[in-house]
From TrEMBL:
It comes from the Eukaryota. GO terms for biological process: DNA double-strand break attachment to nuclear envelope; double-strand break repair. It comes from Venustampulla echinocandica. The lineage of its organism: Eukaryota, Fungi, Dikarya, Ascomycota, Pezizomycotina. Residues 213-222, 517-528, 536-549 have a biased composition (Polar residues). Residues 7-104, 104-195, 237-327, 339-422, 625-711 form the BRCT domain. Pfam families: PTCB-BRCT (PF12738), RTT107_BRCT_5 (PF16770). This is BRCT protein. Residues 205-234, 448-549, 576-618 are annotated as: Disordered. PANTHER family: REGULATOR OF TY1 TRANSPOSITION PROTEIN 107. One of its GO terms (cellular component) is Cul8-RING ubiquitin ligase complex. Residues 459-484, 500-509, 600-613 have a biased composition (Basic and acidic residues).
């Protein structure tokens, strides 16, 4: 093994770290890590007093868990997030280690594994290795000191014998363990599968299995409404978790004045503040997933949790996401559709796990019974061995594990019982050991509970013109690295909200790429997002079609009462809420009737995203001099009102905000980021300016010289090993033909979807197709080919379904007298960023 890097070696030069404290990463460890990093030329930025990490400047975040406030934002900005073990391995390797095996992402449950296979069939070996790599682990062909698991059928293989002789700290497990983990989607205890005497082969499956120890995933989260505050109320503690936070407690909590006063005092004494307006809150505590305040808080990115979550913060004095534990999030009023007809009981769960599942059943809207009778509909069990299990088989009662109720609740929809994950019971394992690991997905909650355009009431200071929380731009990452490892910043989140991929909605064909290099297929255009107008009686998407106008007329005819009220209220003095709101509805509908076609809007100088009022239609606008594509502009994040106003001001200055990279003349960004929008725009050779170019235009009311705002980013230039000025010159010279006649294939299952890479390839003039294993290159006789072998690329991830395609792709390319290159996404991203065709063997997919 290589010796550790010596003190003073520039191992972490140009890297900037922040370290997140937690129960598993205490202050003493943080001090040691900081000293080690600084000894090797790295820089450590302290977390701000308000608990925020400086995401604009850090390159790596060291955390023992993914449960910290800015985890999702950091991943969307493609910042590397690693456990402390990454620093140790980097020192041992004397170079920065791969980040994926050290990711705290709970979905990568094999991330701590380094496996090697022994005496198992080659097909099983490929399947096990592919699964481990896809779920964050690493596979090695040989046995090393870093190996954590040997996959074997017997102890006879030399690798197993060496592990015993050298007393290596690695587990020798049957391949059945990997199989059961994959079937459940969870990492279970490997002890029943350990060689030389595995329990699953020598013990009767029906023999008793001890209940697992209490899971930390449900501690303090077994009930959505704790009966009491788990602290003495006569001696409030100082709580750092509320430092610089503003908390609002909703009226639907229905707690007494004394308890409310105690909770408010705890927050204030801990450096926080209490508010009665959701618009000022950082945390919103409520009981139910409904009401205007709940919707506003959710859409505005405010942390929304219930009383159990608040108690958990107070008890542990450590921030945790309310989405991490199912019963820390407000309850669905009425439960999950369909569960009201179920009578559910439990078996083989004990202690707090049983309490947790009882409350989860009730929260889902079902009836819970302690005993089981013939009229029970479901039995949730941790093992398929008990009197209740036998009775369930006899009475034809559905028998499932707890993943069914957890995922039904988390996905806000009853899951199908036919999914084998819910009916799988590994022998000699009590599934209570993996209870509480299911988390909420914000996108699922948004689709189920957040109206597209909640109408503000009279107490709202600012109306919402559209939902604040919107679809994020896809994050691009290399399958060999973590989402954090590619430095593919996704600072477009809120500015890319309308940047949808039509490829997902269209059925794509597989273009034939013969040796003659077929011409590029038609580019996929991005549909323009229409402005949603709130009516107060439902949400509708206005259109310039005749049917939409007729619907608007019919709707206005139904508002006769409101119109009469409006005419009456107009005559009153002072602030008028009802009349003004009715007026807004009428003006919006009149504007809808008079709206022109999209083509007319473009002719008038308006973008597809702009909605004009009748007054604006009568004002002539200056011609468009700049078509600006914006990415990562923080002033518009979670502030659609300001975004709308700024876009109108910019248009009045002759600047049109566009979403299609092909139409832009200028690109505004805070830094060099490897997002799809940034890379596609680079191919156009635009003038690249800093984001504060927008600020200057808004502030002065004039368009300054763009040259004074040229983007300069020396840190990322070093990181990507290029000069932005050179990139711009090359892009202009390429004229969108950097990849002209270069055939590029992509796997269907690649992370982030093939549509993302298709847009980048086509923006640079390449030929793109999805490879599904069927030959699309014609066979060629090398002797008759005057050109000679030229490269053909397959962009791939590391999933087993993708790896299976590699041999057939290579064979297809060679039959066509072409040079096969099976590459990670880093290749196309680096090529697009540099605007220069480049090649290095490091781009080859691992294991090909």
């Amino acid at each position: 093994m290589a010796m550790a890097a010596e003190k003073g070696a520039p191992l972490f030069e140009h890297l900037v770290f922040s370290i997140v404290p937690s129960r598993d990463l205490i202050e003493a460890q943080i001090v040691g890590l900081q000293g080690t990093i600084e000894d090797h030329k790295g820089e450590v930025l302290a977390i701000k007093r308000n608990g925020k990490i400086d995401l604009d400047n850090v390159t790596h975040i060291i955390a023992a868990t993914s449960d910290f406030p800015q985890y999702l934002e950091a991943r969307q900005n493609m910042i590397c997030i690693v456990r402390p073990s990454w620093v140790t391995e980097s020192l041992l390797k004397r170079k920065p280690a791969q980040t994926r095996p050290h990711s705290p992402d709970p979905n990568l449950f094999f991330s701590t594994l380094v496996i090697t296979c022994a005496d198992i069939p080659s097909g099983d070996k490929a399947a096990v290795a592919g699964a481990v790599v896809a779920l964050g682990g690493m596979e090695s062909s040989s046995l090393t000191k870093l190996t954590t698991h040997i996959c074997a059928l017997t102890m006879d293989h030399p690798k197993c014998q060496q592990a015993v002789e050298r007393n290596l700290k690695c587990q020798i497990v049957l391949p059945h363990w990997f199989d059961d983990c994959l079937k459940l989607g969870k990492k279970i205890d490997e002890r029943p599968y350990l060689l030389p005497n595995p329990e699953i082969l020598r013990v009767n499956p029906d023999d008793a299995v001890p209940l697992p120890t209490e899971s930390t995933n449900i501690q303090g989260a077994s009930s959505p409404r704790p009966e009491s505050l788990p602290l003495p109320t006569d001696s409030p503690r100082h709580l750092d978790v509320f430092q610089s936070k503003t908390v609002m407690m909703s009226g639907d909590l229905e707690i007494g004045s004394r308890l409310r006063k105690v909770l408010e005092d705890l927050v204030i004494d801990g450096g926080g503040a209490i508010t009665h307006s959701v618009h000022s809150a950082d945390m919103f505590i409520c009981q139910w997933r409904d009401g205007r305040d709940y919707v506003f808080a959710s859409c505005a990115g405010i942390d929304v949790g219930n009383l159990a979550w608040l108690y958990h913060l107070i008890t542990h004095n450590e921030w945790t996401s309310p989405l991490r534990r199912l019963l820390h999030y407000p309850l669905p009023r009425g439960g999950i559709p369909g569960f009201e007809e179920f009578r559910i009981t439990l078996s083989n769960y004990g202690g707090e796990a049983r309490t947790y599942l009882e409350n989860l059943v009730l929260a889902a809207g079902a009836e819970f019974t302690k005993s089981m009778k013939v009229d029970n509909t479901h039995l949730i069990t941790a093992r398929k061995s008990s009197e209740k299990c036998n009775a369930a088989d006899e009475w034809n009662i559905n028998m499932v594990n707890h993943l069914w109720i957890e995922e039904s609740y988390a996905r806000c929809k009853m899951q199908e019982l036919t999914d084998p994950r819910y009916t799988h019971f590994p022998p000699r394992t009590n599934l209570g050991e993996v209870i509480g690991q299911t988390q909420f997905d914000p996108k699922v909650l948004k689709a189920a509970y957040f109206p597209k355009d909640p109408t503000p009431g009279p107490d709202d200071p600012k109306p919402l013109s559209r939902p604040v929380m919107q679809e994020k731009d896809s994050n691009l990452s290399s399958p060999r690295k973590s989402d954090d490892d590619t430095a593919m910043g996704s600072q477009d989140e809120n500015n890319d909200q309308e940047d949808e991929h039509t490829g997902k909605a269209e059925k794509k064909g597989h273009a034939s790429l013969p040796k003659s290099r077929a011409t590029t297929a038609a580019n996929v255009s991005t549909p323009s997002a229409k402005r949603r107008i709130s009516t107060g009686r439902g949400n509708s998407t206005p259109s310039s079609s005749r049917s939409a106008k007729q619907q608007a007329v019919l709707y206005i005819s139904g508002m006769a009462g409101d119109i009469a009220l409006y005419e009456k209220e107009k005559k009153r003095k002072g602030p008028i809420w009802g009349g003004e709101r009715a007026a807004n509805q009428i003006d919006k509908q009149r504007s809808l009737e008079r709206s022109s076609s999209p083509a007319q809007k473009e002719e008038d100088g308006y973008s597809d995203e702009e909605t004009r009022t009748p007054k604006r239609q009568r004002i002539s606008l200056p011609p468009i001099s700049i078509k600006l594509l914006v990415t990562g502009y923080q002033a518009w994040v979670n502030n659609p009102t300001k975004e709308d106003m700024d876009k109108k001001k910019l248009r009045e200055l002759g600047i049109q905000i566009v979403q299609d990279p092909k139409k832009c003349t200028h690109l505004a960004a805070p830094a060099m980021v490897r997002t799809k929008k940034f890379l596609c725009a680079l191919a156009m050779g635009p003038t690249i300016v800093r984001s504060d170019f927008i600020d200057a235009c808004i502030k002065t009311g004039e368009v300054p010289d763009a040259e004074d705002f040229n983007l300069k980013d020396s840190d990322n230039e070093k990181k990507f090993k290029l000069k932005l000025k050179d990139v711009g010159r090359r892009a202009k010279a390429n004229k969108r033909s950097l990849l002209k006649r270069v055939p590029i294939y992509c796997t269907q299952d690649i992370p982030n979807g093939p549509e993302t890479y298709e847009d980048i390839v086509k923006a640079n003039g390449g030929i793109f197709a999805i490879y599904n294993g069927k030959p699309t290159i014609k066979k060629t006789n090398p002797a008759e080919d005057e050109i000679g072998p030229e490269p053909v690329y397959l962009i791939t991830g590391q999933k087993p379904t993708e790896r299976k395609l590699w041999p057939s792709f290579a064979a297809m390319a060679r039959d066509g007298n072409m040079l096969p290159r099976i590459v990670t996404t880093d290749w196309i991203l680096d090529v697009a960023m540099a605007q220069q065709q480049k090649w290095d063997d490091s781009y080859l997919a691992e294991g090909q």
